[in-house]
Amino acid sequence: MIDYNEDFQFPVQDEFDAMEVTELEFEISPDENRAYVNLDVIRGTAYREKLLKIFHIRNDQLAKPTRTYKKFLFSGHPGCGKTLELRRLHDYIDHEDRYTSILIELEQDLEIGTFKAEDFYILLISALAGRMADHQFVSEELNKIGRDWLKDEEIIKELKQNYKMEVGAETQAGAGFFGLLKLKSKLKTLFSYDSITSRKLREKVRDNPMDLIRRFNLVLSEARRVVGDELGRDLLFIMDGSEKIIYDVYQKLFVRDAHLLRALEANAIFSIPIHAYFDITNTPHTHFFDYDTLPMIAINDRSRGKLGEIITKRIDGETFFTDGVLDYCVNMSGGCPRQLLRIVNRCLVAKTSEQITMNQAELACRDLGQQMRDLLRSEHLDILRNGRFDTADPMVLDMLYQLVILKYNGKRKINPLIDRPEFL
Length: 424
Fold this sequence. Notes:
The chain is an alpha/beta fold. It has helices at 15-21, 40-43, 46-54, 82-93, 106-109, 117-132, 140-149, 153-163, 169-172, 175-183, 186-191, 196-207, 209-230, 247-256, 258-263, 274-280, 301-312, 317-320, 325-333, 337-350, 358-373, 378-386, 394-401, and strands at 57-58, 61-62, 71-76, 100-105, 235-240, 267-273, 290-293, 405-408, 411-414.
């Protein structure tokens, strides 16, 4: 993942720099970064206002703690900006007048490909212990959990020999062990393959998950006392990246075992994939959660310029685009920031002249559309041709996830990359 703090002089004029800063892996921080674009004016803020109200935030303060612990499912198309939005929410919510917000970025903490449902709870405990480590947090229950989990001599041996972790009396006491996992970035290493430690800890979670929830709730109660005195008025977890886990693991966490999440005595926001958002609303567990989506941005005269800034704040428009080309790329993005970056990056790689011409942009978009078209079966194409995008249809769900169909506020449209006669 490319560091957004790399010393680029935005907007860049060098061709190779332009290719780098339009890569999908290039991260932009909302914290006073010159390349960041706030899209609130064209996307709206209704979803954020709804979320803050659910968590009782009014006039920049937690008006009163929630009587029940809310679980909010936050969804949207891949590349629509969920990660940036969750970071912005965390930066705002994490305040002494509001909450102690604990941000968990799943891709940074664990390997998505090897993620198991049991890791979810280990990660929550480790994240809490890591956040509270600097605040003289002493939890008798966390100590007990740590001792129970580290009784196995094989675990202790592996931690000492393979990971050079000092598992002494203090670490075995609980808070030290979980805090060490989080703060020293050991968790990702331990759970990236079938280590003895990961296997045995997962077994301990799997053997009696409800008992673990009960014990973790006691830890949360102890942490809440520290939070109320020093940091914020209550606890709130924000987990980004949970939309990228294997779908069966997602279903186990948020559908089949939804009662475990409901029993967790903490407010939380979880990101989920857009096809799962529609799936979850058709299950018996809907009433367990609050939920909303981050909408795609409709293309119009008002939004076109702001979307163009996503590019012109990164690369110099006069250097790289002939007349009308950037507007064309914006139109073909369908209002998806990630797709816009992908289009412009493809144009930069493919161009054979100093500037991107309209013909080069059209060819790049056709190539991207062909890649999307190659994924579709005749049944998908029939749905696109008749325009019936019923979200209960599994094929429609697949196309929402793959950006073939784009969801806007109140309507759905075919992605402009594929909405052309030769493809449909």
